[in-house]
């Protein structure tokens, strides 16, 4: 097999045209929101010196990368009847999807640790979460994603593909691709489930456990409400990102029709919602964005 045919969503041009407009709106909104957050964090000294917002800027960059892995090809295919992708391009898409996705999982776990230190050890927060440690943790997240993705890609490329070549999704991912292999994939599926499924499930458990410990350690009612308010945005992001990933990768690779809808959620919609979730619930970010906008408007006027 030299190329794969992606199934897409519909064979009706009118429906695909409507989906093109919708997904283009999501993709443009993703770029505007995440770039705005990165520029705001980088330009504001107070935000840039805070470990929390340093990690938030890196999360926005990962969201941009994650959305860009699949969405441009999706938009092009919505205007193309064939929806073909070369074998090498399919493997590259699969690699970068898991590379960036796993890196984002690890980074979200790092952000949970950051909130734990900030709430449970506030006097030592700046000392523990130094810029050097934050850079190391971010680099470790990227490295963990690279190792995870390399394993997934090697296991996939070792399989023989001799037909059929119809990928039952709008992008190349491990579950639908290995279903097309001309070999018994039972052992490979178990290895991949234990890899992707274990990473997503264990990271999610660690995240929920960390927030539970935070709430248990805080005795006062007002303190718990403040901590819950602080962590609420992070919990929303974690739920939106990890929920679909666990659904896709933690169960045996039986393809359901609902998988496409779930894939849209964490590939297209979640990267767009992350900036809204963090900015709408964060006064410091909104204040910094207003200052940046006023500065930009003043420069334009002069």
Automatic annotation (TrEMBL):
The chain crosses the membrane at residues 20-41, 53-71, 91-113, 133-151, 197-216, 228-249, 261-280. GO terms for molecular function: G protein-coupled receptor activity; olfactory receptor activity. The keyword Transmembrane helix applies. It comes from the Eukaryota. InterPro entries: GPCR_Rhodpsn, GPCR_Rhodpsn_7TM, Olfact_rcpt, Olfactory_Receptors. It is found in: Cell membrane; Membrane. It is a multi-pass membrane protein. GO terms for cellular component: plasma membrane. Keywords: Cell membrane, G-protein coupled receptor, Membrane, Olfaction, Receptor, Sensory transduction, Transducer, Transmembrane, Transmembrane helix. Pfam families: 7tm_4. The keyword Thylakoid does not apply. Residues 33-278 form the G-protein coupled receptors family 1 profile domain. Putative odorant or sperm cell receptor. Belongs to the G-protein coupled receptor 1 family. This is Olfactory receptor. It comes from Myotis lucifugus (Little brown bat). The gene is OR4Q2.
